[in-house]
Amino acid sequence: MWNLVRLCHSLLKAPCPPQFKLTHYQRLWAILTIGFMLAGLSTALGARSGALERQGRALAERMCARCHATGNSGPSAHNAAPAFRELSRRVDLDSFANRLRYGLVSGHPDMPTFRFSREDARALTAYLRSIQGP
Ligand code: HEC
């Protein structure tokens, strides 16, 4: 902890009482500590969003693949159903999770109305985002 206080002083070039002065070695050590903490945090967040997308992909394959192309390539099984990788051209993905939660209606007689839990809606939307083409 003291190392961090000292590092701040040395980075800010603030006048520092002599007992707070850092040796090069201590400074290196403190920077490494912070670096590792940030790296750990971003790995944890990355793993979390990967799991969400995998869950969303499983939902899409189970519930929607009968008609829609749910992956990165290939045509939809139902020829009127848009491929999921191109969905952002037709629907606003920012509000899509809410549409899934409160009842997604396509206006097409073939497509059933879906109502998702909050968690599933987030997962499916995260997956859809991850596969959108240019
Ligand atoms: C039985 C076939 C079928 C299933 C199952 C199905 N869809 Fe569809 N979906 C369609 C068809 C057909 C359309 C084209 C509707 C149109 O063009 O009006 C469509 C259109 C859509 C659209 C575009 C709506 C718009 O406003 O442009 C979205 C989004 C969508 N589906 C999401 C889903 C999701 C998510 C699932 C699974 C949870 C799903 N669909 C399951 C047949 C289906």
Looking at this protein, list some descriptive labels:
mainly alpha; rod-shaped; binds heme C
Structural summary, described in words:
The chain is mainly alpha-helical. The chain has one domain: Cytochrome Bc1 Complex, Chain D, domain 2. The chain has four helices and no strands. It has helices spanning 2-12, 24-63, 96-102, 118-131. The two termini are 46 Å apart. The model has no long low-confidence stretch (mean pLDDT 85). It binds heme C. Heme C is lined by residues 63-64, 66-68, 78, 80-82, 87, 90-91, 104, 106-108, 110-111, 114.
What is the count of β-strands?
Answer: 0
Topology as a string of helices (H) and strands (E): HHHH
Q: What's the total helix number?
A: 4
Q: Can you give the helix content as a percent range?
A: 40-55%
Provide the β-strand percentage band.
Answer: under 5%
Structural class: mainly alpha
Overall body shape: rod-shaped
- How many domains? The number is 1
CATH architecture classification name: Orthogonal Bundle
The CATH C-level class name: Mainly Alpha
Query: What's the overall average pLDDT, rounded?
Result: 85
The major pleated sheet works out as: none
